[in-house]
Amino acid sequence: MEVLPELYSIFQGEVAAVTEYGAFIKIPGCRKQGLVHRTHMSSCRVDKPSEIVDVGDKVWVKLIGKEVKDDKLKLSLSMKVVNQGTGKDLDPNNVSLDQDERRRRTFRDYTSQKITLEAVLNTVCKKCGCKGHFAKECYVQPGGTKYSLIPEEEEEEVAAAGHERQKKTSLTDELSKKRKK
Fold first, then answer.
1. Residues in domain CCHC-type (predicted)?
2. Under CATH, domain 9-92 is a member of which superfamily?
C-alpha cells in the first residue's frame, strides 16, 4: 500500500486537472491525487479555478482531510493556508480551518420559510397606550418612541369602512338637525 502524507502536512504537488469546482493535485511519492476545492484556493473568492492555476503548475498544499467514501480514499487539500512562495504554513494551529468548518456546519437557508405570527394579544398597554402587549412587557422609556403593531390589510379595510360609515352618519345627523330648524 502507498504511503500517504500525514494529516496537516505540507508538500508541493503538481496540478493534474482543473475543473469548475477546483483542481486535482498529484501527491508526490504516490499515485493518489487530492482535490483543492475553489474555496480553499485563496482567501479571496474564486469563481473560476482556471484563473488561479493551470495544468502542470507546481503549488504548495496542506492536507486538511482524509475521507473514505464508497471504498475510495478522498483527500482534501488547501492552498490558502500555505505561502505559495516559500511553502510556509500560514495556519500552524489549524484555527482558520476549524472556523471554516464551523461556518459551513451552522449555515441554514431560511429564505423559503415564511414567518407567521401565531397569536396577537388583543390588549392595550396601560404604560404606552399601544396595542398588542401588556404593561409589564412594555419597553418604552419615559419620553421615548412608541411602537405599535402594524394592522393587517383586512383590519385596515374594516377600519376604513367603519370610518366612512361614521362620516355618513354624522353628515345625515347634521342634515336632519338643519331640517328640524
1. 125-138
2. Nucleic acid-binding proteins (2.40.50.140)
